[in-house]
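LOG
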Amino acid sequence: MYLVFADRSSYNRGETARNQEFLCQGYLAYSPENPRKSMLRAVKPTTNGERTTNYMKALITRKVGMTSTIAEDGVVTAITLLSVADHTVLHHKTEEKDGYSAVQLGTEISKKLSKSVAGHVKTAGVTPKIIREFRVYEIPEELTVGAQMSADVFSVGDKVQVTGLTKGKGWAGTIRRHNFHRQRKTHGGKGNTRKPGSIGSMYPQHILKGTRMAGQLGHEQITVRGLKVAMVDMEHNVIGVTGAVPGPRKGIIILKGAIR
C-alpha cells in the first residue's frame, strides 16, 4: 500500500505569494485573501498540463539497535534495525470536512485508552498505543478505515528518511552544548575556567536572541535523509536501514520514503 504525500519542496520562498500564484498551480491552492493558509492546502503537482502524483511510503517503527551486514564482496555496512508492528488505518481527514486530506495510522496495542481516544478509534476496531497522522494529496481506495499495513510496504534498496527524538542529555553547559573552549587554568583563572564569559555589552542592555548559552541538550526532533533500506525481515517484522537513526533504543521512529 502507498500513501500519497504533499511535497512543498518546490515552493520558492524568495518570491512573493502573488508572484508565486502561477508557479503554485500544481503544488499549492493559492488564496489571495489568506496566502499563508493556502500553503496547507496541497494538491497534485502538474507537469506540462498533466497531473502527476508523488507516491511515498510511511510506517511507525521502534528503534531496536545497530548491527552490520556483510556483502558477498566483503563490504561491511552498518545498519539500524527498526521493529514494525501491524498498522491499522484509523481515520480519514478530508478536504471538505477538515480543510486538508490526511490518513491516521495506529500501531501496537494499548491496555487502556481514554474515552475520547476509544471513541475515535471505535470504527477501526483496534486499541492502538501510538497514533500518527500523515497528510496526503488524496486518500487511496485501498486505505479504508480498518485496513492493515505491515513491513512489506518497503523493499530493499528504497531511499528513505527517518524522523525521531534524539537522546536527551539534560542541562548542559556551553562547552558540551556548543563546543566552546575553556579558559586557561593558570595565571589568574580564579576557577572560572568553564564559564561562558561575557554575554553582551552595555547596549542594548538586554541579551540578544540566539546567544549561545547553557541549556537543554538533546531531546529534539531530527530528520535524517539519504538512507536506504538494507533488509526487510517479514518473519520478525524488522526493517534495516543503512546508517544511524536518531533516538534511544525503543524510541519511536517515523520511516518515510525519501522526498528528495
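LOG (cont.) second protein
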Amino acid sequence: MPRLSFSCLCLALVVPACLDAGTRDETTTSPAGTNGDNSDNGDTAADASTAAAESGGSGSENTDAACMDGVDNDGDMFIDCDDFDCTKSESVTVCGSTTGGGVDEDTNELCDDGIDNDTNGFVDCEDFGCSMNPDVTVCSTLGGTENDPAQCMDGMDNDDDGAVDCVDLDCSMSPDVTSCNGPEDTDEACMDGWDNDDNDFIDCADFNCSMSMTVTVCPVENTDAECSDGMDNDDDGFTDCKDFDCTMSPDVTVCPSEDSNELCDDGIDNDMDDFTDCDDFDCSMNMDVTVCP
C-alpha cells in the first residue's frame, strides 16, 4: 500500500475545517449594519422614525398624529405643541385645552377661562393676545384698557395689570401714546416712572426734569440753606455741594468753586464734588480754564 505524504495528510485535516466555517448557521445574530435588522440603516419604518427624531424631518407637522408623536416632523427644531404649525392649526385638537385646540387667545371667553389656549405660556389677561386686544374687555376691572394718552399719564393702573402708565406695555408700545417715547421735561413725563427720553435717567433723577424751570413736581436743591443741610433734598442721589444743582447755581454761595487755572491745577478737590482739577467738569469744560487739555 502506497504511503501518504505528510502534505496530503495536512490538507485532509484543513479542508473540512474550512468547509465548516463557510457553512455555519446563518440564523445567528447579524452584526450592526447588516439586515438582521438591528441597525439604523433606514430600511425599516422604525429606522425612518428614529432618523426623523434625531435629525428632523422634511414633512409637515399639522395633524393630531404628527403633533403628539414626540418627533420634529418638519425639521424646524420645534416638536409637537411647541411648534406653531400645531398650535395655530385649526385642525389640531391635541394642543392646549378642549376649547383651545391651537386657536388664538383673543376673545372674552378664551381670555377668562383660566386656560393657556394658544399654549404660549401666558394665560388669559397675562397674554398680550388678550390684554392688548381692543375687542377683549374682561382684562380691565375699570372697563377699559390703558393705551391712550390720558390713561398713560394719570398715575393710575387703569387696567389693573400691576403696571402704571409708561411702565405698562399697553402704553409704551401703543402708537397712539407719544408721552412714553419723547422728551422728559414736563410734570407728566417727570412723574410717570418711565425713561421717556431713553437717557437712562428716570423722572426727577433726569436733569431734564430736576433742572427744568417749568417742572414743578421735582424737589429742588438750589439754595444756600438746602445746599448746606447735609440732606439730599431733591432725591437725586447727591447731597449739598456734590449736587450740580448747588454747584452750578448762581444763587448758591456756600459751595466753594473750582473754576480757575490756579484752582484747577492745585491737586485739591476745592468744591468737594469728588472730582479734582481737570477731572472736574468745572475745570475741563470751562472756557476760562486753560490748564486742562
